Amino acid sequence: MNMPYRLNRFVIADPGKCIGCRVCEIACAAVHEKEQTPLTVGNMQNPVQPRLYLVRSVQGSVPIQCRHCEDAPCAAACPVLAITQKEDVIFVDESLCVGCKTCMLACPFGALKLVPVFENGLPVEQNLPLHPESQHQGGSTAGEKEEYKQLHVASKCDRCSGLAEPACVANCPQQALKVIQPERHLTMRMHEAALSLAAVARKYAS
User: Fold this and answer.
1) pTM of the shown model
2) What mean pLDDT is predicted for residues 191-204?
3) Are 11 and 180 in contact (CB under 8 A)?
4) What percent of the chain has pLDDT over 70?
5) Phi and psi dihedrals of 112, rounded to 5?
6) Across the chain, which distance is largest between two alpha carbons, in Å?
7) Quick count: other Cβ atoms within 10 Å of Cβ 154?
8) CA–CA separation, 169 vs 186, rounded Å?
């Protein structure tokens, strides 16, 4: 028996309500803190790294985040299959990510970023092989500096999977963010359109 197909849910913001306070970014970073579940930014060990990104312009401000596309371009472009879909959420497996930035180029919304990795407040470094010319020079100081580089991985909204409600939605003081379930949203818009058309019909019929 085939299960009914359901479009992926995603979080979207109303730019008419958003005041650019960045509470959504702080809440997002806090809930994804690996070492603990902090109540404030002050007791976070690692830098604040949200998975949604507030964009400001003269017209207003609005946070941008992953739409969990059905045929996700980021997942299709990832050469190491680090981006996959679980139920109706597009996930990044940081343990597989090689930091190639291909997903950043593929995303039409700019919802992915390459972020530095921290543990217990300290940067995580990856050991890179020395360039052959540096090795021939007997391991010069310049070559030794190139041997280590801070680890970076792709980061994006995971819709706070496992929580009853995404942290950004739950903490927005203006209720500017909401979870969209496409089928219900379409039904609501169709219902609104039907009522509007009915009102117009009654006006001309009277």
Assistant:
1) 0.75
2) 75
3) yes
4) 80
5) -110, 145
6) 94
7) 25
8) 21
Contacts 24+ apart (CB under 8 A), 139-142: none
Q: Which residue has the tokens 């596309």?
A: 69
Q: For residue 67, report the phi and psi dihedrals to the nearest 5 degrees.
A: -95, 0
Amino acid at 152: H
71-75 long-range contacts, CB within 8 A, separation 24+: 73/106, 73/107, 73/108, 74/103, 74/106, 74/107, 74/112, 74/154, 74/156, 75/103
How deeply is 24 buried, as exposed, middle or buried, from its count of CB atoms within 10 A (0-12, 13-18, 19+)? Answer: buried
Task: Say which residues have a Cβ less than 8 Å from residue 128's Cβ, sequence separation at least 6.
Answer: 146, 147, 148, 149
Give the model confidence (pLDDT) of 104-123 as tens digits. Answer: 999 999 999 999 998 877 88
**Residue 67, both tokens:** 């739409």
Predicted confidence (pLDDT) per residue in 77-110, tens digit = 999 999 999 989 999 999 999 999 999 999 999 9
The DSSP call for residue 13 is E
